[in-house]
């Protein structure tokens, strides 16, 4: 059996290692440059690879192809593979048959990283032998090849879900839905939503789906579609007989007639969206039979995800906050909504079809100045010029932070919440967040 891996990054190299271990003839092809450490791993494992090209004669005779999530369906090589009816799958789909471990699949437009990290934290503190993979941590396939975890918590993007055929999580979580990555879905929001719901398509009666009771799009989907899984929902708007809700400033989680209660002010994570993330993670922990005392302690001592509303420093009584992971409008909405002080907002990057009008009321209420950080800021200017007192364009992070410092007064906050992808000026959102933190430390 010949396995071709397109993309020599974390998921690609992990898949290659697992494929080799399971007796496949493996070939890795990357149209870009493969990082040195990955080249070493491939070479040590005697896996053939190429970079900066796709040699069609070596790719088109594959029995199965694992495509890295970053490669779009419309890439010429992918189109050719599909025309030849060669299966093109994701890393998750490839690795799934090779493990007997339970998997918890977590997706959604926002909050999935925090929910994944928090779920992993709860299960690990609960004494389970658990791995963390998907969009974060070491690749799932790599861990299946080398470790023997009983449970995996997987953060799954819509791109990873597009490449599944048989993958079936024991517990699936959909945190919420809002328009994102529409450039990859022909600007059709329904295609993106369908992609997210693929997480539950193979689930059976003994599986669980945990999702947001308050989410309009999720509710719409359930009016027309169904799942075989048992559903639990969480809400911050109404009390639920079953599932999770708020009552008298207490967070209550009633899962399979087992009630867990905790005062909201004891949760480590702040903000409404994080309350929902905590609800989703708690439901998973209860289903996995983690002790209530452990859940309570873990929810109160959890350190949040880097680049997600991360408090960096207070300088001259101005709080600098790194929310570089906010790459869409909905994520930035959460960030602005959680601000309790006048805010200087650093925003901009590669626009994925954003509608900034949704932020208008929050910007009027909370934002005193905007620093645009991107190559093309025209849309931001059109939307917010005249809404805030000051709006300035910059093309470097250090300049953006210095300008923000000048705009901010004692008691204000400076918030990097870009609302956009980072590829115009940075390698990725992590690079953008690190540059922001360095710039703040250099003030």
Automatic annotation (TrEMBL):
Subcellular location: Cytoplasm
Gene3D superfamilies membership: Mur ligase, C-terminal domain, Mur-like, catalytic domain, NAD(P)-binding Rossmann-like Domain
EC number assigned by the record: 6.3.2.9
Keyword Signal: no
Catalytic activity: UDP-N-acetyl-alpha-D-muramoyl-L-alanine + D-glutamate + ATP = UDP-N-acetyl-alpha-D-muramoyl-L-alanyl-D-glutamate + ADP + phosphate + H(+)
Pathway per the UniProt entry: Cell wall biogenesis; peptidoglycan biosynthesis
Chief localization: cytoplasm
The entry's keywords: ATP-binding, Cell cycle, Cell division, Cell shape, Cell wall biogenesis/degradation, Cytoplasm, Ligase, Nucleotide-binding, Peptidoglycan synthesis
Residues reported in the UniProt entry to bind ATP: 108-114
Location of the Mur ligase C-terminal domain: 307-419
Keyword Nucleotide-binding assigned: yes
Gene Ontology molecular functions: UDP-N-acetylmuramoylalanine-D-glutamate ligase activity
The Mur ligase central domain, residue ranges: 106-285
Pfam families membership: Mur_ligase_C, Mur_ligase_M, MurD_N
Family to which this protein belongs: Belongs to the MurCDEF family.
Function: Cell wall formation. Catalyzes the addition of glutamate to the nucleotide precursor UDP-N-acetylmuramoyl-L-alanine (UMA).
The name this protein goes by in its record: UDP-N-acetylmuramoylalanine--D-glutamate ligase
Species for this entry: Flavobacterium jejuense
